[in-house]
Design goal:
alpha/beta, 299 residues, 3-stranded antiparallel beta sheet
């Protein structure tokens, strides 16, 4: 029997249930149970037995990512579509901090997938449903536990996002995850959850709090494996001005000229993989939208 009684009760009540299944120390799975026309059904995804290292993820601009982790406050976002290995990247970022600092790290996850041992930091991992009711209630509790770093498995509602922004402004480094496709969409999603009356105030807050946005995609490689494409946005005065003025359409130009600040557009990352022979022309075409970039794909 995979489920304890309280888990089974939750599954039958909700008709949909997420949890982490640990068979032993090296065999751990992310499980989603549902009901469908043929009865109960489940999806199982293997979780890495070892915590990944930031240098081994295949991220572009690793030095930029590590610089973002050097801050002691602000908001850093890891984004991408479902199945883009965001959880793996989030765990690697937390473990990098765990090795480099002597702080208190609190993670809020649904469920806890990759288990992190305390190294230099005191790492507290909390799971939705088991240790607290919701992301927002967990954040309220976390702020009373004297954290230095907070990681949030998903920023998906007004209260959670509002608390994450507030925490990032009050001396905490907050790392959150969102299901968005690029940096511009991420910032728009972050802002659009707030009602119109709060837009001016929240744009001002968000303009000051972001450290960076890391958007990633997993692409099939030319040799039948997988490869990571990554878009990176770092905060600078130009980015802050665009956020404050609500002119997100200007982010692309800022990112194109922000290479010295460690920025990179998703299309440029995809094209680097294509030119290096790591992905096929077909895959490259599926992941670029600009005509000028598309014209460079000749295969």
């Amino acid at each position: 029997m995979l489920l304890a009684k309280h888990q089974k009760d939750d599954y039958l009540a909700r008709k949909d249930y997420d949890f982490a299944l640990a068979l032993d120390e090296s065999h751990r799975y992310r499980v989603n149970l549902t009901f469908q026309k043929d009865g109960a059904s489940g999806g199982y995804r293997m979780v890495l037995a070892e915590v990944p290292d930031v240098d081994g993820l295949g991220l572009k601009n690793v030095d930029t990512i590590k610089k973002l982790l050097s801050y002691y406050n602000g908001l850093m976002l890891v984004t991408g579509p479902v199945g883009a290995a965001k959880t793996t990247t989030l765990a690697a970022l937390v473990n990098e901090l765990n090795k480099a600092r002597k702080d208190h790290i609190i993670t809020v996850e649904d469920p806890v997938e990759i288990v992190l041992e305390s190294i230099g930091c005191n790492v507290t991992q909390r799971q939705i449903g088991t240790h607290m009711r919701s992301f927002s209630s967990a954040l309220k509790g976390a702020l009373r536990e004297d954290p230095d770093i907070m990681t949030i498995g998903e920023l998906r509602d007004l209260e959670t996002i509002e608390m994450a922004i507030s925490a990032s402004e009050t001396g905490h480094l907050v790392i959150g995850m969102m299901h968005t496709s690029d940096a511009s969409t991420t910032l728009n999603r972050l802002l659009d959850v707030f009602p119109p009356a709060q837009q001016t105030q929240i744009r001002s807050s968000v303009a000051e709090s972001p450290r960076g946005v890391l958007c990633q995609r997993i692409l099939p490689s030319a040799d039948g494996d997988l490869v990571l494409a990554c878009e990176t946005l770092t905060s600078n005065p130009a980015v802050a001005a665009l956020i404050r003025e609500g002119k997100m359409q200007g982010l692309r130009n800022v990112m194109e000229t922000g290479v010295k600040d460690g920025m990179c557009l998703m299309e440029n990352s995809v094209m680097e993989l294509y030119k290096a022979g790591k992905i096929t022309a077909e895959v490259a075409r599926q992941n670029v939208t600009t005509k000028g970039v598309m014209a460079q794909i000749t295969g």
